[in-house]
Amino acid sequence: ERPERWEYRLTDEGRDLYPLIAELNRWGDRWLATDQGPPLITYHRTCGHELVPLVTCDHCGEAATAFSVTQG
Q1: pLDDT confidence of 6, banded at 50, 70, 90?
Q2: CA-CA-CA-CA torsion for 33, 42, 52, 35, nearest 10 degrees?
Q3: What is the spatial distance between Cα 58 and Cα 55, in angstroms, rounded to a whole number?
Q4: Is residue 42's pLDDT more than 70?
Q5: Which of 13, 18, 51, 71 could share a disulfide with 42, CB 3.0–4.6 Å?
Q6: What is the Cα–Cα distance from 17 to 49, expressed in whole angstroms?
Q7: CB 28 within 8 A of CB 38
Q8: How far separated are the first and last CA of the chain, in Å rounded?
Q9: Which of 12-16, 27-31, 43-47 is predicted least confidently?
Q10: 31 three-state secondary structure
Q11: Do 10 and 19 touch, CB atoms closer than 8 A?
């Protein structure tokens, strides 16, 4: 009751942003790590291992990099 509380529920739009957030976390882990390690480590709940996100093509499964994609 004090203070009033609301439950946050992730929207479809929020869930759709997850790949971007995961990739930003990966970038931060690589480029912003200190002597104590990366600022945030994400783990995959299903297997318990550290998650290293990878953008892949949804048709062939190959990794999509800045050099392997084009826009048109």
Answers
A1: confident
A2: 20
A3: 9
A4: yes
A5: 51
A6: 22
A7: yes
A8: 54
A9: 27-31
A10: helix
A11: no
